[in-house]
Amino acid sequence: MTIGTRRPRAWLLSAYRADSHAAWADWLLASQPQVDWRRLELPGRHFAWRIRGNPLSWLDALPAEAPDLLLATSMVDLATLKGLHPRLAEVPALYYFHENQFAYPLSDRQNHWLEPCMVQLYGGLAADRLLFNSAFNRSSYLEGVATLLTQMPDAVPAGIVERLTQKSELCPVPIAPVSAAAERDPQLVLWNHRWEHDKAPEVFAEAMIALAGEGVPFRLALLGKRPRQVPPALARLREALPERIVADGRLPLDEYRTQLGRAGIAVSTARHEFQGLAMLEAASAGARPLVPDALCYPEQYPPVCRYPEGDSAALVARLRKWLGGDLPPAVDVSPWHADRLAPLWAEVLGTLAT
């Protein structure tokens, strides 16, 4: 993968360096040394400004010499960026969807906002290839575009979704597998997601409190990123089940991985999940994943590990059974391991850069 006698030059443009975005970018640059990378990132805060304002933030920050390849995340307003910098007009571009705004659930405090969707629609049209970390991410983006265009009053060209589909492919984010602990606790229930509305932690809290009321034995590892103000679901668990909580906080990486290696069950109640890296990490350590039968999860886990989406009674029933000793087999998530996915990313980068 060389151009003449040099490595191809690529810019990695990430407009929102939040946790999982950052982990992907760090891994990509470390795993693809055959590319001469230039990295441009913006902090993962002020979402509305980031997704619309990144071309302005980078207006005077881009290198003078154009690269051989652009790799932009879908938080990047790629169409505007290319328009503001004519030297980039003919540079091949990959547009990587870590998420898509068409399928992102709004909280009670948010209103529907068209601009993020339009950024990702125009970005998809401006790119040469679109990369998605799951089939659900791809299908929900394409379906969202189709729905949006049917709502426009006039002058909508035909074939937009077909154009986007033809240049779309799957390219997941890899995980670093976690080793199982020497001794597993089959009654240790793990929560390792963000404590935010799109992960529905209140459903998880309700289920665990209900099981405790039945006298079902279990312990809790309450991990994952949480805001400064304690979320109501976390406060409920701390108040109702303090004696069952064995870990509570955003732990250092080694301690976090230790808890994953010990856990018997990992639970998701997510209303939105485009790839679910936290669950994949837990499953790699041998924890049995219990997830909604929706979103990206049917691509990853067998039916025995899925409960009907939004059915809290089904979640409680499945947990009761598993905590009683009837655990299903561990799930093989090796297709998402870094050593399996690095060659796929190398092939995608090499094809477009040359």
Describe this structure in words.
The protein has helices at residues 19-31, 47-57, 78-84, 114-126, 135-150, 160-166, 201-213, 232-240, 253-262, 277-284, 312-323, 338-353, and strands at 9-17, 36-43, 69-73, 93-97, 129-132, 168-170, 185-191, 219-222, 245-248, 263-267, 288-292, 306-307. With 354 residues, the protein is of the alpha/beta class. Helix 3 packs across helix 4 and helix 5 (135-150) packs antiparallel against helix 6. It is globular and about 65 Å long. The mean pLDDT is 95.
**Low-pLDDT windows of residues:** none
Spatial sequence of strands, sheet with the most strands: 2-1-3-4-5-6
User: Based on helices, strands and strand pairing, what is the structural class?
Assistant: alpha/beta
Helix-residue proportion: 25-40%
Number of alpha- plus pi-helical segments:
12
- Using the CA coordinates, give the radius of gyration: 22 Å
Overall 3D geometry?
globular
- Give the termini separation: 7 Å
Order of secondary-structure elements: EHEHEHEHEHHEEHEHEHEHEEHH
Mean pLDDT: 95
Tell me the number of strands.
Answer: 12
Provide the β-strand percentage band.
Answer: 15-25%
The major pleated sheet works out as:
6 strands, parallel
